[in-house]
Amino acid sequence: MTTETVLGFDFGTKSIGIAVGQNITYQASPVQAVKANDGIPNWNTIEEIIKKWNPTLLVVGLPLNMDGTEQPLTQRARKFANRLNGRFGIKTELQDERLTTTDAKARLYELGGYKKLAKNQIDAVSAVLIVESYFENQFGE
């Protein structure tokens, strides 16, 4: 199996969390959160991160309602995924992200309590969970 590096994105209108993972351990680590202006990041920052990690796949969290229906942010996340693909020419997948923010808060709390719950950390850890759930869906780990 060749090692694939995956960058995950937790799309938001004010902040986009980013994590990196690979398909050998099926685990991911937070990279950072990038500020966004109404859902639009500084594309140069995104490009620097992509150049640094050289991913073979981008995974964008798809925000859905608990019953699986779409919400206003769903289309915006799809558009962001399309823009990533169009700008960087890297295969881009969408991953159901229901519960990732709640799970991220729980994980950060386990690691060190409320002082760890900075918004940018929550976004980056949410991106970790998006990548890891993508791996679970793909490889059944």
From TrEMBL:
Organism from which the protein derives: Parashewanella curva
UniProt protein name: Putative pre-16S rRNA nuclease
Assigned protein family: Belongs to the YqgF HJR family.
Gene (UniProt): ruvX
Listed transmembrane segments: none
Segments forming domain YqgF/RNase H-like: 4-104
GO cellular component term, pick one: cytosol
Swiss-Prot/TrEMBL GO biological process terms: rRNA 5'-end processing
Lineage, highest ranks first: Bacteria, Pseudomonadati, Pseudomonadota, Gammaproteobacteria, Alteromonadales
CDD domains, per database record: YqgF (cd16964)
Major localisation: cytoplasm
Entry's Gene Ontology molecular function annotations: hydrolase activity, acting on ester bonds; nuclease activity
InterPro entries: RNaseH-like_sf, YqgF, YqgF/RNaseH-like_dom, YqgF/RNaseH-like_dom_sf
Cell location: Cytoplasm
Keywords in alphabetical order: Cytoplasm, Hydrolase, Nuclease, Ribosome biogenesis
Top-level lineage group: Bacteria
Stated role: Could be a nuclease involved in processing of the 5'-end of pre-16S rRNA.
EC number: 3.1.-.-
Enzyme superclass (EC): hydrolase
